Amino acid sequence: MAKIAFILLCHKDPEAIIKQAERLTAVGDYMSIHFDARANPDHFEMIKSALEGNPNVAFAKKRIKCGWGEWSLVQATLYAVEAAVDAFPRATHFYMLSGDCMAIKSAEYAHEFLDRADVDYVESFDYFESDWIKTGMKEERLIYRHFFNERTQKRRFYAAFNFQRKLGLTRKIPDDLQIQIGSQWWCLRRRTVEWILDFTKKRRDVMRFFKTTWIPDETFFQTLVRHLVPENEIQTRTLTFLMFTDYGLPVTFYNDHYDLLLSQDYIFARKISPEAKELKRRLGLLYATRGSDFKISNEGASLFKFLTGRGRVGRRFGLHFWENEGSLGREREMLIVVCKKWHVAKRLVERIRKMTNVPCIEYLFNEEGTALPDLGGIQSTMGKRHRHRRALVRMLFDYYETYQLVVCIDPSNLDLLQDFCADRSKTRLLEIECRFSDEYLTGHARRVGLAGEKTPKETLERLLPTIRADMVHESDELRDANFDGHFRIRETESIDANAAALAQFLAATPEKAYEIVNIDYLFAD
Question: Which of 233, 381, 413, 437 lies in the 20 to 30 Å Cα band around 79?
Answer without folding.
Answer: 233
